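Project standup — Tuesday

K.O.: blocked on the structure for the chain from last sprint. Re-posting the sequence here as requested.
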Amino acid sequence: MDFPKLYKVKQHFDTTVVEDIPKRITEELDRVGAYEQIKGKKVGITAGSRGIKKVDVMYKTVIDYIRRYGGEPYLIAAMGSHGGGTVEGQLAILEGLNVTEETMGCPILSSIHADRIGETPEGIPAYCNERVKEVDKIILLNRIKEHTDFTAIIESGLHKMMTIGLGTLEGADNAHIYAMKYGYFHAITEIAKVVKDYLDIICGIAIVENALCDIHTIEAIKPEDLWDKEVELQALAKKKAAKIPFDVFDILLVKEIGKNISGGGMDSKVIGRIRELGQKDPEFPDIKRISISSVSPESHGNYCGLGLGDFSTLKVFDECSSRQAIRDTVVNCVVSMTPEYATFPCLLENEKEMIEQTFRNIGAVAPLDARLVYIKNTKELETIFISEALLKEAKAKPELEVFDEPYEFQFNEENDMIVPML
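H.V.: unblocked you, prediction finished:
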């Protein structure tokens, strides 16, 4: 097969970044008067969000702040069904973030069980981690970002942390079940209202990333302002999010998916595929075929998101088909009502065969004429590669820098793709 040449493209994004994270967090905690509520109190900090740069530094800064003002800090593992719905899995995820009792200098409270603490006006049960009862106060810490499963004024952030994160396995399962009836936005935010009333919250710490996944904004929020500020920061997060700069193309080649990249392995808003009951796929991008080369080591075997692709390889299957990997993935996907994400795509012997079959399955389009985009993952989109068929369109976009030197498709002795530098 004659493969098209690839051309390197760089997207120019806003690179505003918080230079001194500990300083900013300390300033924000002071601004909302957090120090006034700490002395003599056991204070829990929600922990568990993956893929946030220097999140261990953030936790440690809050821990030191609590101790400085006479409080006793605790981290609370808050990650819903992640980690296979086990304490061991939760602690393994935190350890992968450099977050342990030794590195943080404080206890980590972890459990998969939750207490039923009330219900919403329409009768949706609300759950909260049973170990929250061991602390007096809570500081919520989470990233504000687009959710992979729905679109609303509040998606993934502090409200989701209260409903899903602190809900643990039982609360996450409950929220997703009722989301099938009432919609994600309503279920998550209504349950969060009950949890918010149950907790004694000092403040929330909201993080917004820029398109390069660096920390753009850190803001402490008083409990009474959580709704309005999260709406505002969700709008900012959407504005700053990286996207693929083409609306319609034939093939997307993805070097890696993973839970550290997106809750669904791939960001559904980036690839234009949600594939979930009751949810409409985005209109754009419109991509005929998606092929996946690997699952990141940081996923700890959780291959959630492979089902969003059309093709992959037997090597990926071999790496993800242990009983533990299947269990962790199935727990995560079943609880989040996305069993489709735990399925395997068509599996080919190697990456060369995978790519050949991808070209063959886009219809009556010659490979040299195919509109193709190659990305590292759906989170890191500053540098991408495109085929010649997209070159004219790319050069007409002022926000794109197109490099004229072409790259040939190359494969090693095992017929895996030799990846251009991203």
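K.O.: great, moving the ticket to review. The CA atoms of residues 22 and 78 lie 22 Å apart. The chain has a mean pLDDT of 95.
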